[in-house]
Amino acid sequence: MIRAMQRDLPVLIQGGMGVAVSDWRLARAVSEAGHLGVVSGTALDAVMARRLQLGDPGGHIRRALAAFPVPEAAERILARYFVAGGKGADQRFKPTLMKRDRPSRNLRDLLVAANFVEVYLAKEGHPGPVGINYLEKLQAPTLPSLYGAMLAGVDYVLMGAGIPRAIPAVLDKLAEGLPVEMKLDVKESGRDDDFRTRFDPATVMNGGVSPVKRPAFLAIVSSHVLAVMLARRIEIPVDGFIVEAPTAGGHNAPPRGKLQLNEAGEPIYGDRDVPDLAVLRELGLPFWLAGGYAEPGRVREALELGAAGVQVGTAFAYCEESGFDSDVKRRVLELSRQAQARVFTDPLASPSGFPFKVVPLEGTLSDSEVYGKRTRICDLGYLRTAYRKDDGKIGWRCPAEPVDDYVRKGGAAEDTVGRKCLCNSLMANVGLGQIQRQGDPELTLITSGDDVSDVARFLPPGADSYTAVDVIRHLLPDG
Fold this sequence. Notes:
Strand order of the largest sheet: 1-11-10-9-8-4-3-2
Shape: globular
CATH architecture of the domain at 12-325 and 458-475: Alpha-Beta Barrel
CATH topology of the domain at 12-325 and 458-475: TIM Barrel
Strand content: 5-15%
CATH class of the domain at 12-325 and 458-475: Alpha Beta
Number of helices: 17
Largest sheet: 8 strands, parallel
Helix content: 25-40%
Radius of gyration: 21 Å
Distance between the termini: 33 Å
Number of strands: 15
């Protein structure tokens, strides 16, 4: 079996951020510069479908689909979603199917193809390594998504927001073209329940399955205790770790112990939340440090502590190549210039239950008045939680969906307070927001790490924007 872990490990890993913020353009720019570019694997089926409905500017998706090894599936996807010239600005996006533990053929093919396309475009035209980032919490689409990325030759898989103990063995089997399964986390399930999601590469490849490269797997952790478990207490260990501090953007691990909030209402992290790097070094696996490492001195510090390097996200999030809407970048960079950009670690915003970093920005869902006016709807469903229904089957619910629906499914009404629809807002962040049936556009909710406060430092003198290479030169001035 061929593994992708390089002898010359990357010093710099570009974070896999949000929905399509770390898109193929950003990952390719970083990879071409000699570092590990990473695409976000979250919601790629909806991302590709909506890009096609916008007319596929530049023809990039159609070019990648032409290389997809199952032409019939590619043709079905184009027939279903491609709109020549793009849909009208006031027209809704055609919906993709909600995620299920047993996806239809159309959804399965869309997941495989979308992950193939994003990695294919990121790797196109250069020999540099490319990774893809997933959330362990999003279990239903994981298996076909992994296989699609592997068909395109992805070099690294990164995964956090949970305990990804099953993934190393899954990658081994997918590399051989074998069927795989993964246990689903299902609320209210009993001791005798055994809920699983399954995927067989042969069902996509029409029986013509060939071995593919097995990518290296990096688990994103915040605790040395979890790192020990993933390195020594599962049958097939992980290949390395990204150790994230709570200053990193997006979802953060909750503080260990009883949740306590500061005066601003943010979770308080303490000594128990600081991983023991001596333990990590003893494991003998490479690790990268993340969260506040976007300075040359911090990179040197990480290397001196025994890390292979650092992962940097926020600095790349606002560069020209990132998927953030151009107006979002402009507004945040201007706030940073004025020393007014900041983040709020919201303990309630994410339906996942993990703390979620939010950039307070006028007109976005960070504004309580704007949030209160939004009509609740769950029409993407990535962050839904599986639960056991009375008939023993799986149901799906989300604390950000309409309150009555959530309560009818057995959820507690108090769990819906303050919850925001990250699925729709993160799509809006990258210019792919839906228009609700009553005509209201879905609004943005910006997430970044603490480093957003000074992200304008990457701007060259007199410039209003900066590139991925500008970030790299700042971080690694000596190359």
